[in-house]
Write the structure tokens for this entry.
Amino acid sequence: MIAAPRAVFEPARATEIHGEYDVVVLGGGPAGIAAAAAAGALGRKTLLLERYGFLGGMGTAAGVTNFCGLHANVYGDIRQVVHGCADDLLARIDRLGGLNEPHLIFGKIKAQAYDTAAYKIAADDLLLSRGVDILFHALAAGVVMDGKRIDALLLETKSGRRAVRGGIFIDCSGDGDLAAFAGAPFELGADDGSMLYPSMMFRLNGVDADVAGDAWKTIPELMEQAEKRGVRFPRRGAIIRPQKHETEWRVNVTQLKSANGRALDGTDANELSMGEIEGRRQALAFFEFLKAYAPGFADSYIVDIPPQLGIRETRRITGQYSLSREDVHSCASFDDTIGVNGWPIEAHVAGEVKWEWPDIPGSRGYNHLPYRMLLPQGVDNLLVAGRCASMTHEGQSAARVSGACFVMGEAAATAAHIALSAQLPPADISVDALQQRLATNGVFLGRGQ
Ligand SMILES: Cc1cc2nc3c(=O)[nH]c(=O)nc-3n(C[C@H](O)[C@H](O)[C@H](O)COP(=O)(O)OP(=O)(O)OC[C@H]3O[C@@H](n4cnc5c(N)ncnc54)[C@H](O)[C@@H]3O)c2cc1C
């Protein structure tokens, strides 16, 4: 007997067109915010699509609450190296009282914490001030192709299925959903299939900051003592830090794996579902440990477990160039630089976090990000920016953080603008013109160090 196929066949249907745009940006994380803001400021009719009801990507949806990669350690001088749209966003968060002063990490680099509510409001304001249309609660579900061009992006919304037409599409979905729908080649994981492990972030309130002191330095020691008593933690390398209001702390310590022990796959619906539940279980277990053993945490409580599990890595498109570990280590230069990444390799491997730094303070501390990493193969009117851009597994372990994603998003939109003006595919535009425009708009291209 022939087994019935495990599928149903949907009838063909006509799908209402939601709108036609010059630039369509999928995803409202740091890459998508910068892309939409830049395209809007350049006068392009721009739409940003986002499956949730707010912007920020992993920064808000997964409770990251901290910008990495805005700074670099330039020959011992830690300075901000990501500017452009990011400056406008940071200023708006700051005006809402939601931005911490940058804090030191391992004495080598700085990061900057923020309040998620302020980030969401500031990002709304930024895009609206630049004339961008936003469609929230819109899940991209497929494409209609016209040869090697994307004709329309298909969305599922509460109003039903919709299509959006665009001149150029920018995939800032983090997972490379749009590139995958369009048939662009991508990789999922390293050569052995392993990806960076996800984490369920959570935040505590009610911490006695005076008693907690520099708890981020002492909690790892408390965890080691607990391990000697037989306690097992999902991972070492806990990151536990105060937010803007000193009673509120973020906790980055959980780690989610699939049944085979490898990192949970954020493109697998079943694994994602399991990971949300296990992530919350791990969050509760670690909270109970902190409450019992960490000075200053006795009266704390969980104020937030974010809307979704934090996914660090899924699809990485195979573009014209893949940023590599060696590029990060050697602070590589590229003729087609679009900005810089100053964050080191931060590899979330089984049970721990492994850091790999460029020579500090002997190097300029950042690598160029080449325009080619935004250019997928086989699709003419698509750019890809953010953590799903073209990088090796190790290169992505560094340039996946917010700073580099802002850079990539702004560059992708600026390239889209130039491509539309020149009526050329993004792969054929003048890189000189792109760099001049980025520099005019305040982007630091990393030359002259
Ligand atoms: C636990 C954790 C801790 C981290 N810590 C830090 C940190 O301290 N500092 C730092 O800078 N970075 C940190 N990172 C990394 C950083 O948050 C991400 O790499 C960064 O947000 C990636 O930006 P992005 O714009 O490429 O994608 P994302 O932030 O992933 O945004 C993608 C957006 O696209 C939307 N989307 C996806 N698919 C679809 C679809 N099909 N339809 C519609 N919308 C869709 C998503 O909802 C999301 O809003 C951390 C990441 C994790 C997971």
Remarks:
- The first strand starts at residue 16 and ends at 26.
- The chain has a mean pLDDT of 97.
